[in-house]
Amino acid sequence: DAGVIQSPRHEVTEMGQEVTLRCKPISGHNSLFWYRQTMMRGLELLIYFNNNVPIDDSGMPEDRFSAKMPNASFSTLKIQPSEPRDSAVYFCASSPGGGYTFGSGTRLTVV
Amino acid sequence: GESVGLHLPTLSVQEGDNSIINCAYSNSASDYFIWYKQESGKGPQFIIDIRSNMDKRQGQRVTVLLNKTVKHLSLQIAATQPGDSAVYFCAERYRDDKIIFGKGTRLHILP
Hints:
Structural class of chain B: mainly beta
Oligomer: heterodimer
Number of strands of chain A: 11
Number of helices of chain B: 0
């Protein structure tokens, strides 16, 4: 099992550009979560899906953020337009119910 | 991955001693609790979990204690090793399967 796979590992983009982060959960896990980690706010839950359906997106900071899960093996988190304050490490995690398995994260830098 | 840096409490422990990391959780309705370890440049890694109908659970070199009366969770690491250096997060699950993370504690091992 390759675990939760995120891409890209690092992303540097200019302010105003669209950014798309990708996640492949562990096969058989029916829940998927997107977190953002910063020095000031720690790990924040942005949105989570259960059986590909968004359940709670109350953590999504603004309308500039959107997430999709078109099938059980793929999810995206999109930021459009990106801003410097979006710079953070974005983690995807999946779960069969119970504890989560995290991916290695995408370090996003918006300049 | 980044962790909360400037504002993280730090616990310094002599190699070979036992470590105790404490956490206060917020929601009395939470039914499941997890400890995660995050090393520099990596995503959080599951260590041990406990359900709300238990007050103690042991793993390999780790023990989690749960006190629901005062909403307190602790992680005990026996015979602390250099590889235990990391940031440790407690997390609680609300009944809707959403897991919320605490701010984290940095464990520093003294030689």
